[in-house]
User: Which sequence fits this backbone?
């Protein structure tokens, strides 16, 4: 049975924990309690194969950046999250991607990464368009982009299944782009 290490990355308050808890425990947590580092496990069936997903929910706050290299090295796949209601969190994504590539000593398109614009249920507060998210993913060589809502469960399962599929491709030496 395969075990996959997935790391959640993104700025503070973008919903990394909410997405993770919605996926693992199928509940929405709406109070914001900044994470330092939490670990979750879920066994699931993806494409007729059982996978154990070990999900590391990381701190978005800059004061915990020193811990980042450790979990970037340990991670096999990365879910990079910004909030569609916060332009600044969107602008930080490239730094997270560069950090991953530097830690892994890989080039764009060689590391399993999914880009996520979270809080799609807050459309009236949107600051980042779907097109901008899609374009960023394309420009960074990221094969999968989703807009999600941890609150309504929109695309939550799809994100974790997509990153697992990418990890499998990577382990098999296959290209990550479609």
Assistant:
């Amino acid at each position: 049975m395969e075990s996959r290490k997935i790391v959640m990355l993104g700025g503070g308050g973008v919903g990394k924990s909410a997405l993770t808890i919605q996926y693992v425990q199928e509940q929405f947590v709406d109070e914001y309690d900044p994470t330092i580092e939490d670990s979750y496990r879920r066994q699931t069936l993806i494409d007729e194969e059982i996978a154990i997903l070990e999900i590391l929910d990381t701190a978005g706050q800059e004061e915990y950046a020193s811990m980042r290299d450790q979990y970037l090295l340990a991670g096999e796949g990365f879910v990079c999250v910004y909030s569609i209601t916060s332009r600044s969190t969107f602008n930080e994504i490239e730094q997270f991607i560069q950090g991953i590539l530097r830690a892994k000593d890989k080039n764009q398109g060689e590391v399993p990464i999914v880009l996520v614009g979270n809080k799609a249920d807050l459309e009236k507060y949107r600051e980042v368009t779907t097109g901008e998210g899609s374009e960023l993913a394309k420009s960074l060589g990221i094969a999968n982009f989703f807009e999600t809502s941890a609150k309504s469960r929109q695309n939550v399962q799809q994100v974790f299944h997509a990153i697992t599929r990418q990890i499998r491709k990577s382990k098999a030496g296959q290209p990550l782009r479609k």
Remarks:
- The helical segments are 16-25, 68-74, 87-104, 130-139, 156-171.
